[in-house]
Amino acid sequence: MLLTVGVVLAGCSAPEPVTPAVTGDYTELSLPDGTQLIPPSGTTPAAPQAPSTCGALASLRPGPSVPTGGAPPGRLVADILARDRLIVGVDQNTNLFSFRDPNTDTLEGFDVDVAREVARDLLGDAAKVEFRLLTPGGRFDALEKNQVDIIAQTITITCQRAERVAFSTVYFEAYQRVLVANGSGISGPADLAGKRVCAAADTTSLATIQRVQPQATIVAVPDWADCLMVLQQRQADAVSTDDAILAGLAAQDPTLQIVGPPLETEPYGIGINKTNTALVRSVNGTLERMRTDGTWMRLYDRWLTALGPVTGPPAPTYRD
């Protein structure tokens, strides 16, 4: 998941949103608004550069949110302290990580709770958070324009993305796999040739699908919840993205299962404006505390046991 959809589509014109004619066994129901059908590439793209080789996984060492000795905090940190709330970019369609609870109409999930821990350390109160809903395609623009302070949205750290925004240390590691209906006959990427595979637009899952199975048609939808719908309506044969996201989809439908080997490692980081190094250090301080005081494991046990047992959080890597 190491390239954006813009890179995937380089060299050819971007497909227009369409409602395709009915072919094969696909239903006559309309696809979600904004859906794009990306035809098979026919050739296998080169593997992207691993983030471990370009230094993207190494972040800044934890530091105090307000420096000692009378020095003023960094610009964005000062803004956060002045407004007395942390503005966090999330989505509401990623079950287990960031979703809207229909019973309480509140945002819940692993990423939501991680953001609250950042607010707890920075502002002294985990409730001092303002969540703003972002699409995958708009999240980095919002960060660069300082419309949000941080993004906690299952973001895979890549070399290309690290040129654009800063990342925290890795706080979760996922693996891209495949989700299908029981009895589909699909057991791995080889079986996706000639099939439709759903992925969210403007995510790096698209490039991985094209690399591991260039004979697949990609159904690119606005949100991951749309992939669940098109799979249930037989408008796609499979969904492929991080197992963490797939587990959230499968939890909503017992007729679905995750199959096949890991296709790509997906190290998640919290996105931060590249100029705000003080905030990067503050966020890394929170993540370090969560690793050592048991908070990370408590959140994993609350939200992510569907992924199976883990020994603990990913170890941090620092560059200074």
Automatic annotation (TrEMBL):
GO terms for cellular component: extracellular region; outer membrane-bounded periplasmic space. Residues 85-307 form the Solute-binding protein family 3/N-terminal domain. The keyword Signal applies. GO terms for biological process: amino acid transport. Pfam families: SBP_bac_3 (PF00497). The keyword Signal applies. Keywords: Signal, Transport. Belongs to the bacterial solute-binding protein 3 family. PANTHER family: ABC TRANSPORTER GLUTAMINE-BINDING PROTEIN GLNH (PTHR30085:SF6), AMINO ACID ABC TRANSPORTER PERMEASE (PTHR30085). This is Putative ABC transporter substrate-binding protein.
